[in-house]
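FYI - complex with zinc ion, inputs then prediction.
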Amino acid sequence: MTLDQARAELKSRQARMSAYAHATALIYYDGVTAAPKGTAENRAQTLAVLSEESYRLSTDEKFIETLEFLDENSSELSEAERRQVYLLLKDIRAMRKIPMEEFVAYQRLLAEADAVWHEAKEKSDFPLFEPLLRQIFDTNVRFAGYIAPEKKPYDYWLGEYEDGLTMEKCDGFFAAVRARLVPLIEKASAAKPVDESVINGCFPTAKQEELSTWLMKTIGLDLDHVGITTTEHPFTTSFGSHFDERITTHYHEEDFSMSMFSVIHEGGHALYDTGSADELAYTVLDGGVSMGVHESQSRFYENILGRSRGFCELAFPKLVELFPQLSKYTAEDFYRAVNRVRPSLIRTEADEVTYCLHVMIRYEIEKRVMAGELAVHDLPGEWNRLYKEYLGVDVPDDRQGVLQDSHWSGGMIGYFPSYALGSAYGAQFLAKMRESVDVDGCLRRGDFAPINAWNRENIWRHGCLYAPDKLLERVFGAPFDPKYYLDYLESKVKDVYGV
Ligand code: ZN
């Protein structure tokens, strides 16, 4: 094998892997958007075949020999090629420790779990979902044992979503957050409540669709490469490369702000993915580097930019144009309503300040289930107890409780902490961005170009070229520190509530 042959194989193999990823993502997307109810079993059948083929494609002996050859000659490779080889070998070595039948069975289980979770949520019927959820947790514990027997299973999965993350780090982060957030929430709750009537009423879906298009254009998405459709639980996905990105939303006619901020959130994910350098397409370096950095971008657009006073002033005239009943309100009323602090039941609808506590509850539950200290059967009771203890709210049913999120049905255990970490990274990005960009001025003018250019230069274009902790250090010029996030939240509460 010559070096040129090995390089060509590296390139073509990744292109084929991207094609399988494209097909798999499209089938999943169809399942949660357009597909009729009775088709889940059919998709599960196809996905099982595709996952078996893609497992073979990425783990066969010939490819491993190629990668090992390239690894031995790494001084001849570009920085991007070296990183591709490193990431592929890491994945393959992990995958080969999982027996293929178990890997394929797990893909089938996830496809079924997705459909059952939808039904269980609709009926608020946890026992329907319970056996599948137990199998998902058991499989995650077993797979972690195959791949990294030296680690605690939950540490392994935390690190899969955010390289280098462990329970020890999470415990430290959440303790720092809890220490300042709990008194902050108490202060806001004791203050005069914010009038939220501006966002409540009747807002026709067709008008909200117009708003979505306006938002996508305003934040700088390229609508020739980013599409939108509706689903139960909004998400973003890439098809094959960053040239085809899809976001999703869910319209609530009684409150336009729910879809509005979810479009900006998913739009942030799409900006990050589509901002990858074009030469990274059809390689494993294309798209966002980790869940934490991904959430730092989505929550940056949703909250730090989207809920800022400048952006609320920019958006309000458009809102009045679409929903004339809002003409009796002001942009300031809107700003205050979308920044109200109120403990609630649903994570995706939570305000910025209480949000982290929703994540903490999921983290504590996952940690204990993965350690065998909490049975899946007892999840609803424990969920409800923690919501009462941390947020002071009573959970009326499992639909608004333990069944609300899609992550567990998708096998994503260890993902939730990245939402909280991402929010905190975002605040430190803002502090850095402000050194060279007039962020508030840009928002008032509706000029996202300088903000997006900064993110593209510092974060997006690199794709997965740098590990997340390296990327953060490059941008921050200092270690990650949750203090920026807590300072930001305190000043927001002071601004809205005067306390
Ligand atoms: Zn997100």
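The two ends are 69 Å apart (CA to CA). The chain has two domains: 3-150, 167-497.
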